[in-house]
Amino acid sequence: MADQKDERLDKLFSQLLAASGPAEAQLIEGAIWHIWGQSDDGAVRALMEDGVAAMSRRDYRRALSRFEQMVAIAPDFAEGWNKRATVHYLMGNYSASLEDIVRTLELEPRHFGALSGRGLVYVALEDEQRALDSFEEALAIHPNLVSAAINAEALRKSLREKQI
Known about the structure:
There is one protein chain. 77% of the residues lie in helices and 0% in strands. By secondary structure, it is mainly alpha-helical. It has two domains: 36-108, Alpha Horseshoe (Serine Threonine Protein Phosphatase 5, Tetratricopeptide repeat), CATH 1.25.40; 110-164, no CATH class.
């Protein structure tokens, strides 16, 4: 089985924490994303492929439709929820995105992508402290997640300036 329950993930997450730098971490991250995105169910695989393709074309309605079908037939597939959260975010549906992120993290608490995505939602909602907390949670799992590190540093600076 390949999804968030895959036994290879524990070792990959240990390697991610011990990575010597961003280049090594990026390779490990790619392996994690690959496993997260896999399903033994052919219908789920087809919906994932079509949804991701639609998302890359910015056809968010189609992507949302595919990911809604995916979570309906595979409610325990964390990456389906994460993808739907991403589409909701891209469409500006922040509360729906947060709900799907919660479900993603219930299924895969180590989902640094969902944690980072939650940070982006909170940035959009102008809740800097929650955004920072989310990026820091992602960095605790994936210390070399460059986008989260950049966002966290910008938020720390902004919050310090507001205290002055």
